[in-house]
Write a structure and sequence with these properties.
Number of domains: 1
Distance between the termini: 55 Å
Low-confidence stretches: 1-26
Strand content: 15-25%
Radius of gyration: 20 Å
Number of helices: 4
CATH class: Alpha Beta
Largest sheet: 8 strands, mixed
Order of helices and strands: HHEEEEHEEEEH
Helix content: 25-40%
């Protein structure tokens, strides 16, 4: 390649770089803003303790009012392995579901969202938050069908019986297909 051709290629590449912005972190683009995450963490923290004490899942919704204020529905008690939240009565847009995965049980993998969690959110057209017995917080982006670990072990209250490693290595991000494979492995 001649010096002139090489120089033209460099100039073209630099011009394209100025015209087409570099892609931001694709995971960051899938997450909600920090204010929403902080509100969800504050809401789920006391519910985690209740979930551990009763051995049940608890669930509800995060909504947004017309004035853009966030609110949470009542967190209702579900079963040992599931929970169906009640839709809000007030005129609001539902932004996300949220639920706990109950108390620690060494025979139940609960440190990551399930395919059912993801599919339920996708069917409802909302995103989701899942709190685990190990104190992890997950975000389910139902459009992208991706679960992203917002914060790891112990960032929310942790069941005192929890044992690190029972669910194997936990990644920070899973697609629906990867969750399906993970569930089959357990």
């Amino acid at each position: 390649m001649s010096e002139r051709t090489c120089l033209l290629a460099i100039v073209s590449a630099l011009t394209l770089a100025l015209i087409i912005p570099a892609k931001a972190n694709p995971v960051a683009n899938m997450l909600p803003d920090q204010a929403e995450i902080d509100a969800v963490k504050a809401r789920l923290a006391p519910i985690q303790l209740l979930s551990f004490a009763t051995g049940r899942e608890y669930c509800g919704y995060l909504g947004e009012l017309a004035n853009e204020r966030l609110f949470f529905t009542e967190m209702i008690r579900g079963g040992h392995d599931g929970c169906t939240p009640r839709l809000p009565r007030r005129a609001a847009q539902v932004r996300a579901s949220l639920h706990t995965h109950g108390a620690y049980d060494p025979s139940v993998p609960a440190e990551f969202p399930t395919v059912l969690d993801m599919d339920s959110d996708a069917r409802e057209g909302v995103n989701g938050y899942v709190a685990t017995p190990g104190g992890r917080l997950w975000y389910i982006n139902s459009r992208a069908l991706v679960a992203i670990q917002i914060c790891g072990e112990g960032c929310l209250p942790q069941d005192e019986r929890f044992r690190t490693g029972d669910d194997g290595p936990i990644r920070n991000r899973y697609t629906r297909e990867e969750l399906l494979q993970l569930e089959k492995a357990h």
